[in-house]
Amino acid sequence: MASSYNHVAGQSVERLAALSDGIFGVGMTLLVLDLRTPALEAVRGEHGLWGALAGILPQLVMYMMSFITLGIFWVGQQTQLNLLERSDRHLTWINLGFLFSVTLLPFSTKLLAEYYPYRAALLAYWFNIVLLGGSLYASWGYAVRHRLLRADTPADVPAAVCGRIRTAQALYAFGALLCLVDTRISIGFIVLVQLEFALAPRFRPRRSPIPTPSQTLDP
Question: Is residue 213 part of a domain?
């Protein structure tokens, strides 16, 4: 009975994608709930408001950084799910582990926003990113090994997906190491990495291959 159940459980890619969309949506919403407007009694005039806004700037930076983080990982997971022909029980649970890491990000973001000068807060945030990247990498590796991808998936895609995750995690790790110098430098580097992965591809025009002399001649 157990063997039969495990064979048929967790095969719906659509349900997994729907659950992921919901959790990502909730996680992105929870991030903004930690933002607080300056207390009315603490503001004395226009200059006082500007000063109060400057005081919550670290929280705004952490919100932006984590929103981009979730956006990057949502795109990454959706890319994987779109390439799946089917799922199975083990792959579903790996993705549930990935979603667990998603639900932790509002906490690690709030921790970093309140204690950004401390290395422990930065390392806790980075560890959350490690969990996200590691579970996404495990999900993709399992799907490739067990032939769960669609038959029309280009041959170079599996290696490209793995390479992108490894590159991102290596850059995040380097950014975390920068906290040995200053946590603000570390945060700034992580933001730059995120902007690179989120925005750079659309600004990189595809280069057409230069035709060889034989290609320019009429047959």
Answer: no
Place of tokens 């280069």: 207
Rounded Cα distance between 14 and 48, Å, is 51
State which residues form the domain around 175. 9-203
Give the orientation angle of helix 89-114 with respect to helix 119-145, to 10 degrees.
Answer: 170
Assess contact for 172 and 133: CB atoms under 8 A: yes
pTM of the entire structure? 0.82
In a domain, 35, yes or no: yes
Say which range, 57-61, 107-111, 170-174, has the weakest mean pLDDT: 57-61
Angle of helix 13-33 versus helix 57-82 axis, rounded to 10: 180
Q: Which amino acid, one-letter code, is at 54?
A: A
**Of residues 19 and 55, more confidently modeled:** 19
